[in-house]
Amino acid sequence: MDDKEKLYNSGVLVEHCEGAVLPPAEEWKKKRGGYVIVECPQRIPCNPCATVCPSGAIVPHADINDTPEIDYAKCTGCGICVARCPGLACFVADLTYSDESAVLKLPYELLPLPGKGEVVKCLSRTGDVVADGEVISVSEPLKDCTHVVSIVIPKNLVDDIRSIKVVR
Ligand code: SF4
Ligand code: SF4
């Protein structure tokens, strides 16, 4: 079974599956504010990521079914696409936070909402707890009630952490 068959059968992205978009490694290390990561490898009729991006970093889709392409020279790390993607497929990672830590902005649609300063469990794509993370901000939701939670995570897990769990 190849990566795409695994994805379509499980719903879980296999690492670096064709169509998932990661920032260029060297520029990413130095980019204050971070860059977007888009994990949307399946052709589906969807394009809010491209239409809401204020800087045109997500290239307008020629066909509504296109998978996203990113012009990283234009990405500011603003996180608007994180809040507006209905597939919860956009993330922003800032690798400049400290030597050991990164900030990950991820979409969150569950309750309870975490609060600033709270320590949450960081989950892998398959829902396994892989680390603790400290919440540093929670955005007000846009139209569709998706919050964007910014958490400080171990930098070496930036490719693995894709969700959080609030434990009280
Ligand atoms: S983080 Fe902001 S600038 Fe970057 S792709 Fe998303 S909406 Fe565009
Ligand atoms: S909005 Fe999200 S699900 Fe839709 S095409 Fe963009 S990244 Fe994929």
From TrEMBL:
Gene3D superfamilies for this protein: 3.30.70.20
Q: Which InterPro entries match?
A: 4Fe4S_Fe-S-bd (IPR017896), 4Fe4S_Fe_S_CS (IPR017900)
Domain of life of the organism encoding this protein: Bacteria
Extract the Pfam families matched here.
Fer4_7 (PF12838)
In its UniProt entry, what is this protein called? 4Fe-4S ferredoxin
Source species, please? Cloacibacillus porcorum
